[in-house]
Amino acid sequence: MSYARGLSFALLVGSLCFSQSQSTAQNNDSQDNQPHIQPRPDGSVATPKPTPKAKPQTPGPQAEQPAQNPRPQPPVSQEPPESSSKDSQADFDSAPLAKEPAPTPAVDEKSFHPWDPHRAAKDVEVGYYYFKQKNYRAALDRFNDALLYKPRDAEATFGLAQTQEKLELLNQAYLTYQEYLKILPAGPHARESQEAMKRLEPHLDARSNTGSDKGDSTEHDLDVGETYLSMNNFAAAKERFEEALRLSPENPRACFRLAQSLQGLRLIEPARLYYKKYLELEPRGPFADDAKKAIADINAFVGK
Asked: Could you tell me if 255 and 245 are in contact, meaning their C-beta atoms sit under 8 angstroms apart?
């Protein structure tokens, strides 16, 4: 009788435990209907990785204050890492630019001229046209230009000598006539060149006898200045004649040549003053007529 009671009590307790376990399982299924771990296609189950919890930050002003005694940091290298595209760009911007090559200087037109006899012949033709029109400065340019494209051209040399003589560049004209005779000793203008040299010789002797305290230096400056003047290089001629006047302030030839150089540079008022000074020094000198004509032309141009 006691045995039957104990067995029935054990069965009652077991049924109560079984019913409690079933209710607990049902509650868990209702809270999470989906499995936490999804099976892989091959049937294996992946092991979930735990997510680290974020460290809570202490609110308030104390969290924003830096440490009072921070540790010294090692110096940062100035060289940018190669793997950083931003730093590579900064390095490119800060790198010194490569120096551009110096531009090739332009070739001066008067320092090099190709051989062009056709252009030289045209310059000679135009030069003689200006010569007949008594435009001697323009003729001088053309004959000089012809000799640049065809050096030692006999016709251009003779035309240049005639033009220099008309411009009272006697020393240059004498040398140019002599140059023509070297090119063509029996040429068509040989006789005219010989007669011109004989005609110029007395004037050269008279000019060389016009001395001063520093006659040699003055004559040298005058000769070089006339060489520039024969090429219409008025700026270089002006410097030489000014130097001649500095050495010999009362040299009439230097006054006249300086006036011509100034007129070529379009410095009209100073040119007129030096023409007048020449006439004061040599009222009947070899350049008197040219000086008077130049003054009249300037007066007509200026209107005085």
From this structure: yes
